[in-house]
Amino acid sequence: MEAALSLLKTAKQVDRLAGLREQDPLVFYRPWSKQLEFHRNPAAIRAVLGGNRVGKTTMGVVEDLWIATGRHPFIKAPIPNRGRIGISDFKILDQVLWPKISSWLPAYEVAAYHKGYKGLVTKITFKNGSVIDMMSYEQPSMKWESVDLDWCHFDEPPPYEVFKATRARLVDRDGRMWFTLTPLEEPWIMDEVWEKCEDPDKPRYWGIMLDMRENPYLSRKAVGDFVAEVSSDDYEARVLGHFRHLTGRVFKDYTDEYPFVMTAEQAQISPSWPRMLVVDPHEKTPWALQWYARDEEHDTIYRIEDRRHDPADGIEVFGNLVRNVERLQSAPVPDHMRIIDTYAFKPTYNTGGNSLADEIREITGYAFRGADKSDQDSRLWDLIYRYKINPITHIPRIITLDRCVPARKEVKNYVWDKHRTKIGQYVEQKQTAVKKNDHALSCDHYMAAEWPSTARFADPISLFNDNPRAREEEQSDFPDFEGVPISIAEIHKIAKKSKRKGSFRRRSFY
């Protein structure tokens, strides 16, 4: 009898919980550790980049609903507020976003649903006056220029024009923006958002990358099967959450840290080592000036300075820049090791037929030689070889000092070009790199022509077969830092203890 009563009591509790879940599903939201990091952070622009099935859309949707209903445990939002969710097309809205919203949306908070394209719900009005609009990137850009916003959530990579239009809509209300996406497209996100998230001097930005294998709610077996079957091109984006446009990186071994990047103290550059200055000039864009030193004994090149010169400032300023940098180095570059792109030797109209190189020599006193631009493919393979770890010295054969920030960015983002079909689809990788934002690397090519590696070249074929998963073969299939589900009680406990509770009015968006 007691057992029967116990079962009846348990059944009633289950029914009661089911009823509560249906009435207010947000109460049952259990973020895991990295999802909670996102919810707690008060930055104006937040970026969550992750592989498939890590809970990006769920955390984004819950964030939207917490803000719209005024129930956010960490961020104080104005009520009412107006927000926008951006998705790639209305098919995604129908099949992915709306089912996710409806599964977490407390029905009693809703005043009205508004249907738009093909009868889909594209707008929600809440009883407290808040509004959520759901928009597609297929819509004309002028549609994104409408109404002022308090917040915006991009659940798919948006086109740059959509991002700019939305950012302008947030200014008047000191609004917020967050991204929850797999970075398969729109590489501008890396430059405009992600790199700012990694910059400690930009507190308005915050970002995190989620690994599929960290999600505690996924079956380890299912994830393992997916990882085993996914292609190498998709692995970094769909599993690790890395930018897909970087899966075709030219210097795959390069990391923006030691031993590829060193401080001057770590490098211990001898003043007796040979020096070289290479300049890549342009008519309108900044010139790249790269200074190198060569450790001939160990066949190692050090990039010791990376400077930029605005051509609008004039050649005299350029000469002062060169003079000041070399004075600080206490090791001037000999004239025969000053190299410049052959563009500088073309006669220019506004100098009466003189070349840029002539003007530089007359005004600054520095004479430059034309760069060797022959056999650039061999120079590229030489650089690839240099950006691999030397098994004898345990450092690469080309090292960049940490102060050379633009060059470090170019090396990290240097990718192979791709063949395209007539409709713009990528079909296969070329054996040439993308000629974009590569000024420091152009100087590297010219440097390699003057100082070719003394060691044997690596086999070019093997470089294309470099599988990103090879680096993890000796490791476990799953990281040690798996996510941990957080209880709702713990969420509110943390919220109460938080010393700085985020506010929409706390800081200006700009």
Main sheet? 8 strands, mixed
CATH homologous superfamily placement of the largest domain: P-loop containing nucleotide triphosphate hydrolases
Structural class: alpha/beta
Q: How much of the sequence is in beta strands?
A: 15-25%
Calculate Rg over CA atoms: 28 Å
CATH C-level class of the largest domain:
Alpha Beta
Low-confidence stretches: 11-15, 419-428, 456-481, 505-510
Mean of residue pLDDT values: 81
Cα(first) to Cα(last) distance is 68 Å
Number of strand segments:
19
Total helical elements:
16
Corresponding CATH architecture of the largest domain: 3-Layer(aba) Sandwich
Q: Please, how many domains?
A: 2
Strand line-up across the major sheet: 4-5-6-3-7-8-1-9
Indicate the multimeric state: single chain
Overall outline: elongated
Stated plainly, the CATH topology of the largest domain is called: Rossmann fold
Task: Describe the protein in words.
The structure is a single chain. The protein has 510 residues and is of the alpha/beta class. The protein has 2 domains: 19-247 and 481-503, 3-Layer(aba) Sandwich (Rossmann fold); 261-467, Nucleotidyltransferase, domain 5, CATH 3.30.420. It is 34% helix and 19% strand. It is built from 16 helices and 19 strands. The chain has helices at residues 2-23, 33-40, 56-69, 90-104, 160-169, 188-197, 220-229, 232-240, 264-267, 315-329, 356-364, 376-386, 405-413, 439-450, 460-464, 488-497, and strands at 45-50, 75-76, 82-87, 110-115, 121-126, 131-136, 151-154, 176-181, 205-210, 261-262, 275-280, 287-295, 300-309, 338-340, 369-370, 398-401, 416-420, 426-433, 502-503. Strands 4-5-6-3-7-8-1-9 form an 8-stranded mixed beta sheet, sandwiched between helices. Strands 10-16-13-12-11-14-15 form a 7-stranded mixed beta sheet. It has a two-stranded parallel sheet with strand order 2-19. A hairpin with a 4-residue loop joins strand 5 (121-126) and strand 6 (131-136). Helix 3 packs across helix 4 (90-104). The longest helix is centred in the first third of the chain and has 22 residues, at 2-23. It starts with a helix and ends in a 7-residue tail after the last strand.
